[in-house]
Amino acid sequence: xxxxxxxxxxxxxxxxxxxxxxxxxxxxxxxxxxxxxxxxxxxxxxxxxxxxxxxxxxxxxxxxxxxxxxxxxxxxxxxxxxxxxxxxxxxxxxxxxxxxxxxxxxxxxxxxxxxxxxxxxxxxxxxxxxxxxxxxxxxxxxxxxxxxxxxxxxxxxxxxxxxxxxxxxxxxxxxxxxxxxxxxxxxxxxxxxxxxxxxxxxxxxxxxxxxxxxxxxxxxxxxxxxxxxxxxxxxxxxxxxxxxxxxxxxxxxxxxxxxxxxxxxxxxxxxxxxxxxxxxxxxxxxxxxxxxxxxxxxxxxxxxxxxxxxxxxxxxxxxxxxxxxxxxxxxxxxxxxxxxxxxxxxxxxxxxxxxxxxxxxxxxxxxxxxxxxxxxxxxxxxxxxxxxxxxxxxxxxxxxxxxxxxxxxxxxxxxxxxxxxxxxxxxxxxxxxxxxxxxxxxxxxxxxxxxxxxxxxxxxxxxxxxxxxxxxxxxxxxxxxxxxxxxxxxxxxxxxxxxxxxxxxxxxxxxxxxxxxxxxxxxxxxxxxxxxxxxxxxxxxxxxxxxxxxxxxxxxxxxxxxxxxxxxxxxxxxxxxxxxxxxxxxxxxxxxxxxxxxxxxxxxxxxxxxxxxxxxxxxxxxxxxxxxxxxxxxxxxxxxxxxxxxxxxxxxxxxxxxxxxxxxxxxxxxxxxxxxxxxxxxxxxxxxxxxxxxxxxxxxxxxxxxxxxxxxxxxxxxxxxxxxxxxxxxxxxxxxxxxxxxxxxxxxxxxxxxxxxxxxxxxxxxxxxxxxxxxxxxxxxxxxxxxxxxxxxxxxxxxxxxxxxxxxxxxxxxxxxxxxxxxxxxxxxxxxxxxxxxxxxxxxxxxxxxxxxxxxxxxxxxxxxxxxxxxxxxxxxxxxxxxxxxxxxxxxxxxxxxxxxxxxxxxxxxxxxxxxxxxxxxxxxxxxxxxxxxxxxxxxxxxxxxxxxxxxxxxxxxxxxxxxxxxxx
Length: 969
What we know:
This protein is mainly beta.
């Protein structure tokens, strides 16, 4: 049988057509009609759940006037290497909507066989035509990609993905603000984050997928709707709008999405047509004791239709955000008016309105909210009602999106206004909290907490009563209230004993308490705090009052320790009883070494600890009082007040030796801030100390600079001795004044070396032009020459007897001495820093005497890099190893050089920025930079260049060099 052979050119055209058809994913059964869509996920929570099974709902929006078979079946890729099979997912329903839009719903399930992170993929073929911001409007052959992340994790059993209640189809008007909120909610109480993305597609469509794993990409030539440069919406400007975000009227249009609420604001459209946007909704779960963890993500693709209209947006008025206690009802009246007097429809979106009332595992029902509009004639109003329960307590508020849509005359575009109303639900306060003192503790009791879906009861204490008032919008107990958390118990516990973790509460003090309930993650949340209750521990506590240095010495130092005698409200302590004193070295140390024998006489409250090294060390003490639980028993009751340290004084001459810096520190349980600290000094030759001055007391220490007085300055080559005496008190019970002395500290005020006055010889940058051609900076070493003299009047009595000098350097132009490093020392008054790749850097010098005392730093001197860059007018890229590349004559470190070459007709033939020294080999721009092949060489002749150079000097100077070069081979 004979066959008719196609001409050769027909065969080629047919092959090209097949390739294009495959690349554009144009399957014959599909049409170009898709507008928008997204995917929802829920883990298996049926009566007999299957591990790893998830249920999915795919919702797409398409053009209505399509054949009946369009979209009746779809293909899904599950992300685990499997697929539903080609066109295996059958459409469950199709609902025609207004404006030539249909809503398509597909439901299906899948079982994942192992824990992991999976991405479910959908490729819709294809988008509707003439989407202005995709591929320059040629969107007819661009498919629509949607995805949802599935995290299979036993710990996330029952997790549900976010639900976006507002359809991803909306209308906008030219020169009017466009608003849209997806009305996202999460039934598990997870936090949601919204982020704009470029619309996605899979080149080649379903037929191109390999290994059942689509590889999505940004759609071709995507522009955000407000993009001015792309002429998607030329002339779009911001118009007046109440925000957020606040507009800059007359400035270029903006397109934003709030990361928390999801609110999209386009201010404002200028060109009619269809626009598509995409955004991801991230699902974040709060984890106890750790940062929130991202557990899912869905990608929604949305369409906005912009049209010209004389209609004006309606104006929506919402009630203020509210906070309610679980069990209370929320009621809000939503109102709207229309500037044109058009009828208005009010609608509400959000998780509260989409609930199916069911009994929760906690035993609490979750009720569905209602919203009813009274009339459609403007002005209109609607009433929102919702009854909360304990199951609704959450850290984040519930969001209800209200939308006012007008109904204008024929041929006008309906417009909307919308806003978000937030309702926060907190737990009720625990009731009937009582405090009863017993021995050295306080017993707390309260009623069984009302919401037994809570997780813990948290308990807080403070000394004395506070003025904290619980706030329904800020549940729990803030740190500013002055309470400290002392414990927590299970939700069904109704008692707690506070004995200060076994150390006992202090006698004579009043302690006040509040408690609140905490709710489990992921929703979280807290209750209001309970009413405050207080109780007093009668009697007098044992408290350390003095840790004062009696004698300063290396081996014979002494510290006197004093404490108060404990007293019961009535009666006497059971014996055996007594004191144990403990000591440790240092200020913030833990005293564990017992000092001396146990003291049995309770009236003996003073102990002098001798044979210490108080000259070099500070010491911390802890007193422990013990008594028997029963007379003559062996089981002890211990009282352990907070430890206290001695006062540690340090002193050192100033850099110029014209004064003495004193610093002291301590760690004590009493308050040293109320009364001043006294400073005593013993002058050279004096036998006793005299009061020098007083300074305000500090919580943990203080400082003072002693420079003497104008008529009696401190003298060089003399020794001055000091001690300080703090003056403190206890407020409850009131005890004071508490006087505690430091050890003695003697400081020798030596004569300091005179500091240098430094100079740096500048580099002769002009001389660089005479150097031979060099492409390698290491061939051009620089030398920085330093010299100095001594500043013999700084201070006036400084010493000129210098042993040597230290030279410091910084590669940055810094005035901060911490940025410098010691590079060398010398005994002469000059120094040459040799063989430098760049002269850039800063220096200072310090004088040092024979006792290794250093002077104040000299002045800082700096030198910058020379900006020397010269390009030749000829090079010969003939491969002979000589002058084969075009490179600059340069003596400066360079960060980057962008080099562009044009031929005599102005066509760009080369561009590169990878090599700061250029090293162009005469190839055309189409070749890989730095590589050369005979076919890629430019022809011999004259070319024009533009070199944009960024130098590595301190200022990061940028210069542009223009010129010509001749290529000769």
